Amino acid sequence: MKVFMIGWEFPPYISGGLGTACYGLTKAMSRSGTEITFVLPGAGETGSGNYMKILSAEGFIKAEELNSFKNVHFRTVSSPLKPYVPSELCGGGVLGKNNSGIGARNWLSNPSKNLQNYGRDIYEQVYRYAEKTAQIASVEDFDIIHAHDWMTFPAAMAAAELSQKPIVVQVHSTEFDRSGEKVNQIVYDIERQGLHNAGRVIAVSNYTKNIVVNRYGIRPDKVDVVYNGVEGGGCAHWQKPAEKRDKVVLFLGRITFQKGPDYFIAAAKKVLEKISNVKFIMAGDGDMMHRMIEYAAYLGIGHKMLFTRFLRGHDVEKVYQMADLYVMPSVSEPFGIAALEALKNNVPVLVSRQSGVAEALRNALKVDFWDVNQIANKIVAVLKHPPLGQMLRENGQAEAGNFRWEDSAAKVNEIYKRILNNN
Amino acid sequence: MASVCFYFQVHQPYRLRNYTVFDTDSNYFDDTKNAQICRKVADKCYLPANRLMLELIKKYKGNFRISYSITGVLLDQLQIYAPEVLTTFKELAATGCVEFLAETYYHSLSSLYSQDEFISQIRLHKQTIQRLFGQTPRVFRNTELVYNNRIAELIEQIGGFDAILAEGVDRILGYKSPNFVYRPVKCKKLKLLLKNYHLSDDIAFRFSNRGWSDWPLNAPKFANWINAVNGCGYVVNLFMDYETFGEHQWEDTGIFEFLRHLPGEILKHPDNNFKTPSEVAAAYKDCDAIDIPYTISWADIERDLSAWLGNPMQQNAIVEMYKLEKTVKSTADESIIRDWRKLQISDHFYYMCTKWFADGDVHKYFNPYETPYDSYINFMNVLDNLNSRCFKVLFEKENKFRNCSRGRNMPEQKVLRKNTDKFYVLERN
User: Fold this and answer.
1) Which of B319, B373, B374, B387 best tests the A interface by mutation, with the highest count of A CBs <10 A?
2) Which residue of chain A has the CA closest to B312?
3) What are phi and psi of B53, to 5 degrees?
4) Are residues A319 and A411 in the same domain?
5) Residues A168-205: tens digit of each pLDDT
6) The dihedral of CA B59, B60, B61, B66: what is its sign?
7) Residue A279 counted as domain residue
């Protein structure tokens, strides 16, 4: 079976879950023998007139992993579009080569999925991407089209029109996750059109499936849930850090509306009413960062709230080692691989119920993102009662090991087979 | 000769309310939920089952005999939420065919942690049974059939008991059969009755299981299994939760009809009869001593303590709770002592159990928590508040004492201040 997969970002040029998920999924699918042509927007570093550049996988993948990707052929559309925004962070080329894999999530300063950050011509870019992708599709041979998130939906529809092949769209996040109730109508329309034109829809959680069904009017039986996996082993053996004075509670993610950083700070304030030997770390960048610094200062807990800005590579591992608890108070989180990564790094997790990972993970503390009292209550409990953290860590780490990309890939393959048999 | 010995466990805990670290009041229990569940179980199980038992006892004119162990915490709740259940239990007591057993008033695991507390809870329960049902329990059954040599010895020391109950665990019995009367090793008079878990679980757990090869189970079939014991045992001990009737096994499974026809079928065989635990102990000689050095219970497939004490959270919670015993008792404050005792109810620790992958279904029964972690957090918050209440009371006492002794010589004052400082530090932490 040959798959024509259309993505938007890929390590090392990623800003969040989408790139990580595409990486993990294609790697596992390639290993299981599925042939994939992976189309990506180019980084735009080459000025050549070729619309299509055939890359050897070396441009993307660490040398030791090349074998895992042997069934994947990358095609990039090199055009003026620049989806990977903050150039000061990922200079271009293969700079991030050493940073892929676990603990090396690139928490870029700008949410690339957030519209304002694409610049004004985002729609133009999306449709130009569609046009170029269609051109690639016309010369490639494949059985099925698989598109990830709305930016790729027009491309998928264009490719389908040319090839008459069925589309599978995978939803890693929706406009409602990113923007709450203030949805961008144009993006919503593209999402809706893409979902309705697809032969099947893959949602990364039941949480997301519900949104797809209720907000986009898709039949529930057309939507399959395939959970994400998590890469790598993390630190195999947890070492108790040397006796330190202060406990550390960690927020790691983009500091944007979607991730609920304000609830984290409000909870921190309440925690500090009960225990004093604790520090809070906010690792990440985002459009709400300055407001959050001011908010912490306003609450009088500025000295307890440390802002690290964006962390990468080794620093991420270090911050995990320091942490006694990872908190993910997302307002709306389609999945939340980050929580699994924290567990893999031996950090117990507290996640919001408004996330996909909350429905899939048993050994985690769960709260409603708005329930600051409960967030604080549970943070205090973990810090005060060592057996709780210990059990969450041990059982959680074991459970996180069950989220394997191989299983996700197998499910996706099943879905392909079903749709091809029906046609 | 095969005697059938029925004992039903009747218990509902006081469930805690959602109590965060920011709560400061001392209303720890979810009265609404406890009332609801108590009413629901009363309507689905206690009332219909009690009525049926009364009917059967009358019908068989003293030949159908049963026993109950009702926890103090349930009796308290029934008095408030379902007094008619208590009335029917009293009617049952008046028939003379029903025996009430003794246990720890608070359905606690105190036998493992505090001898003093264990003894006073048994005493409390015994008094309550005497007051409500007019009979003095002669047989002891520990919470969840938790049992070891030491507990049996202690029960003999306390005195007033003829027998103690335990689970007929295979690894203890080996080739021996639970259908005889035994004696705990090191005990002289006390007899040991062992649960026949095969036949008990056929009713309690497998009755409605359509995957079971003996489904559907009916009274003649079960009576045949009892008859098979004739010649190789004296007694079949059928110990189970009373909630089996109507709650674990719903009415539409036919469980009540099964029970209705069971005595008749069993009594068809001339050698069969029904006996209460005391009657079994009086009728049969013990045939051997049984040595149970480590603790067993009737829970799950492991039949050990792992359902309550199997993980670090459970261990931590229970140890911290019993650590408070001295402090709690030194306050001499009734409401504090009662709250502390309600925290001993074993269900609180059951909810913290994490081995739910194999035994999940049972552990979910009326479990108010989403995860065992939430249960632990809630419990520890309550315990923390109880702790600070104790210190507040003690601190006030200390103050009164200091005011009284003002003007005395200096050294004593110094000692007092040192003590209060210690309290202050403890309280702050």
Assistant:
1) B373
2) A387
3) -60, -45
4) no
5) 999 999 999 988 888 889 999 999 999 999 999 999 99
6) negative
7) yes
A412 falls within a domain: yes
Cβ-nearest to B380 among A365, A374, A385:
A385
Residues A332 and A205 in one domain: no
Query: What predicted TM-score, i.e. pTM, was given to this entire model?
Result: 0.86
Judge whether A238 lies within some domain.
no
Q: What is the tens place of the pLDDT at every residue in A266-316?
A: 999 999 999 999 999 999 999 999 999 999 999 999 999 999 998 877 888
Same domain assignment for residues A49 and A98: yes
pLDDT digits (tens, 9 = 90+) for B333-375: 999 999 999 999 999 999 999 886 544 455 566 788 988 999 9
Tokens 């144009």 belong to A186
A229 SS3 class: coil
Q: Report the residue from A270, A273, A388 with minimal CB separation from B377.
A: A388
- For the domain spanning B2-290, the CATH number is 3.20.110.20
Residues of B in contact with A381 (CB under 8 A): 21, 376-377, 380-381
Judgement on whether residues A314 and A185 belong to the same structural domain of the protein: no
Selected catalytic residue, list B99, B103, B144, B265: B144
Residues A196, A267, single domain; the answer is no
Where along chain B do the CATH 3.20.110.20 domains lie?
2-290
Dihedral class, residue A13 (left if φ above 0, else alpha if ψ from -120 to 50, else beta):
beta
CA B260/CA B262 separation, integer angstroms: 6
B404 CB-near residues (< 8 Å, 6+ apart): none
Tell me which chain A residues have a C-beta less than 8 angstroms from the C-beta of B381: 377, 381
* Contact between chains at B22 and A373 (C-beta distance less than 8 A): yes
Distance from CA of A387 to the nearest CA of B (A): 5
In this structure, are A181 and A35 located in the same domain? yes
| ipTM, two decimals | 0.86
**A241 located within any domain:** no
Domain that holds residue A55: 2-229+404-422
Assess whether pLDDT exceeds 60 at residue A50: no
CATH number at residue A118: 3.40.50.2000
d(CA B368, CA B212): 30
Number of domains making up chain A: 2
Q: Supply B204's token pair.
A: 């309690």
Tens of pLDDT, residue by residue over A337-379, are 999 999 999 999 999 999 999 999 999 999 999 999 999 999 9
On the CB side of B185, CA atoms within 13 Å amount to 10
A195 and A274 together in one domain:
no
The answer to whether residues A270 and A237 touch, using CB atoms and an 8 Å cutoff, is no
Nearest Cβ partner for A366 among B20, B370, B376 = B370
pLDDT digits 0-9 by tens, B171-199 = 999 999 999 999 999 999 999 999 999 99
Indicate whether A67 and A216 sit together in one domain: yes
**Stretch (H or E) spanning A41:** strand A35-41
Interchain CB distance below 8 Å, A366 and B313? no
Task: Based on the residue annotation, tell me whether B243 is a catalytic residue of this protein.
Answer: no
